[in-house]
Amino acid sequence: MAVLVTVSFMSCATSPDTTSSDIASKDKPGVLVTDVTMVTATVEAIDYHTRMVSIRGPQGQVIDLHADESVRNFNQVRVGDKVNVKVLESVALYVQKHDGAQPSVKEGAALALAPLGEKPGIAAADTVVLTATVVDINYDTRMVILRGPEGMSKTLKVHDRAQGMEKVKVGDQVVARYTVAVAITVNKPD
Fold first, then answer.
1. Distance between CA atoms of residues 126 and 107, nearest Å
2. pLDDT in tens, the chain (190 residues)
3. pTM for the predicted model, two decimal places
4. Residue ranges per structural domain of the chain
């Protein structure tokens, strides 16, 4: 249910609240950008036997969703309940001195479900961390060549607004951490 609600309603959601923070160390650059989007929909109809739910989004669009058996406490959902979806996306990009580790991609995930007997709810997060090594850098053209996992290289242009490029050296590691987290709660109407 989380993915369907997110995909269907995010285009009609409130504007994302975007923040950007400088996460640079004293000798290497870095930045963190976070977007938080929230949307509330209303349960219009529910069929407990087929586990189908019709929900109306903030601009009046109605979608039908199938709540599979993993949706805990489905029998607690009622017509008129509010479905709140909050999606957080963040990207952290920073440079560090090479720590001896090879370029890599790592992924981690977490999931939490509502307690039994409560209204349905879920919180899920997924994080991917990519580490690449700087193999060449041209400060005049602001071009950097990174070597990632499996030896693949990629040439990138560093944006003119990116600060601290002069602190980046061949052999440094560039770390990109992407996180997406979704929280869905079902509440009684106000």
1. 7
2. 333 333 344 444 454 576 666 676 778 888 888 999 999 999 999 999 999 999 999 999 999 988 888 888 999 999 999 999 999 999 999 999 988 889 999 999 999 988 888 888 889 999 999 999 999 999 999 999 999 998 999 999 998 888 889 999 999 999 999 999 999 999 998 8
3. 0.73
4. 2-187
